[in-house]
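We close this part of the discussion by returning to an individual protein. Part of our work consisted of pairing the sequence of a single chain with a tokenised description of its backbone. The amino acid sequence and the backbone structure tokens for this protein are reproduced below.
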Amino acid sequence: MTEQHCTETARPFRKQIGLPVLAAILLWFAQAPFSLWPIAFLGLTPLISMIAREGSIKRGQWLALWMAGTLFWLVSLEGLRHAHSLMFLGWFALSAYLGLYWILFVYAGRWMLHDRSFSLGFSVAIAWVGQEYVRNYLLSGLSACMLGHTMVHTPVAMQIAACFGSYGVSLFVVTGNLLAFQIMRSRTLLTWIPAPSCCKTDLTNPEEETTEDPKTDHQNRSVKTVGWRLDSVLCIGWIGWVLVYGVWKLETVKSDKAETLGTYVLIQRSEPVEYIQPTSRAVEIYQAYVKETLDALSRQTGSIDAIVWPESMYSAGNPWREIEPG
């Protein structure tokens, strides 16, 4: 084992930002408009590597993590800039704020793993789902681009949302990333997989290696091995249960015993809008929704229980009016 893999040395910033940027690219391709959902099961592995590695994370690495998170949100929320010519200010500010949640994820994961001695799987799962929960509610919340949203084109994985919401689907993807990380670590497929902590060098005196009691080192290795195996069993169990539940739910819907809740028509158009637009344009969009609704109803043979529109379409540009019941 070379000293390069056993010590945490100062590295150029371009190397420090490599892992976070890789995560940003993978997660971006996993979601719309690309929707390459299998990539979602690899998107978190670079960040999991930062959580699992021994030693402290330097200030430059935290900065690189925040910059990569900001970059991910910039490309994910780029549609915001089209509403108004000054919207790019809010776009940048919101992306910079959301980039902090990547820091929260890595920091919380490392705190649970290294300071509280939880397993890596537990630390990563709680840290990621926890930061999604906080992001969805803090400061009015923003629930866009959750990890579970990458599974929107895989119905079998989405069924678990009936029990745990989008957080259950996110946990499903997180466990897939944990298994992928363990496979890459065991096979040493990537050089950025953290090295074992058996041969750390004292940074105060790089020429001297710290010595550990062989018996203690063997016990630490055994505990970590048991932890990895337990994580693997739990991850495989959760993934298996989600898939079995998903298949069962989909088959139940196809059977005659399925409970019919109703037939709904969801109308959602893609209309170019402006932050401030004339009333004539609002009426034009409203009429387009009416025509779309009539076309949808003409294609239905049975009864329709409800028609669902976006809330902004109902008024056709007119002020909202609240009327008392009756």
In short: The first strand starts at residue 264 and ends at 266. The mean pLDDT is 81. The chain is about 60% helix and 0% strand.
